[in-house]
Specification:
single chain, 261 residues, alpha+beta, 23% helix
Length: 261
């Protein structure tokens, strides 16, 4: 079994007012000030990801549209290139499917994080009231990109461990996290604190290891450590087994990446 994004709908007869992400300010409706809660509602879903490339490419042909409007549309549609990696659940013949735009940093992974709506999170909530409570608290937060970036990065360790796909002896804790969006990728990520600021802040707050794997130009691989700022730029791979010595850009696209398709 692979734990990945699925579509579920709970039918609820209670009337609701639906707000866009931009209409939620500090967890409340922008006009009424009433507390907002995220819920699933019955509706039709269109898999816009199937049309993303076509929609984005055709924006260039809209010569009479203002550039500002086209930029907003590009940002709303979005396009991310990356890899899907299957992380084995410890002691089970099951996998957590994660998405990353930086497969070159896989050896720097020290934890996994899943969205509150992820099936693995909901399954844990049935067994643990504390997990259910945390998920409910996450439901009051806006899911706009700006709100997620500004919010305090919080998570709850659900007690599940996954095995690193290239170093099975390494066990990574799985957190339900308020900064993971279910509608992006697979709704699950691996955290590489050394090279993502959000992951670094979360790791520091939860006393998680920080393993640098991309060495900045001019740095010494024997003495390099990550401080308060993650290195998100290019460099040379180290602490990375078969990727060692490769430029980080090439490591993303090198033949070994076929292993994590």
């Amino acid at each position: 079994m692979v734990y990945k994004k699925t579509a579920t709908v709970n039918w609820d007869p209670i009337d609701k007012t639906v707000l866009a992400n931009e209409q939620v300010v500090d967890g409340c409706g922008w006009r009424s000030g009433a507390k907002v809660e995220r819920r699933e509602i019955p509706m039709y879903y269109m898999k816009i990801t199937a049309y993303a490339d076509e929609l984005l490419d055709e924006l260039d042909n809209l010569s009479e549209w203002p550039e500002l409007v086209k930029t907003m549309q590009r940002n709303w549609i979005g396009r991310s290139y990356g890899a899907r990696i299957f992380m084995p659940l410890e002691g089970k013949n099951e996998y957590l499917e994660v998405f990353t735009t930086r497969p070159d940093t896989i050896f720097g992974a020290t934890f996994c994080a899943i969205a509150p709506e992820h099936p693995l999170a909901l399954e844990a909530a049935k067994k643990n009231p504390a997990v259910a409570k945390f998920i409910k608290e996450c439901g009051t937060l806006s899911v706009s990109e700006e709100a997620v970036e500004k919010a305090e990065k919080r998570g709850y360790d659900i007690g599940i461990r996954v095995e690193h796909p290239f170093a099975r002896e390494r066990k990574l804790p799985v957190f339900v996290a308020n900064f993971i969006l279910y509608q992006y990728g697979t709704g699950a990520i691996y955290g590489c604190p050394g090279h993502d600021q959000r992951d670094l802040d979360f790791a520091r707050a939860n006393q998680l290891p920080v393993i640098p794997v991309v060495l900045p130009a001019g740095a010494d691989d024997k003495n390099y450590v990550v401080g308060d700022v993650a290195h998100t730029g290019d460099g040379t791979m180290f602490n990375s087994d078969f990727l060692n010595g490769l430029p980080s850009g090439k490591a993303k696209m090198s033949p070994p990446t076929a292993l994590w398709q």
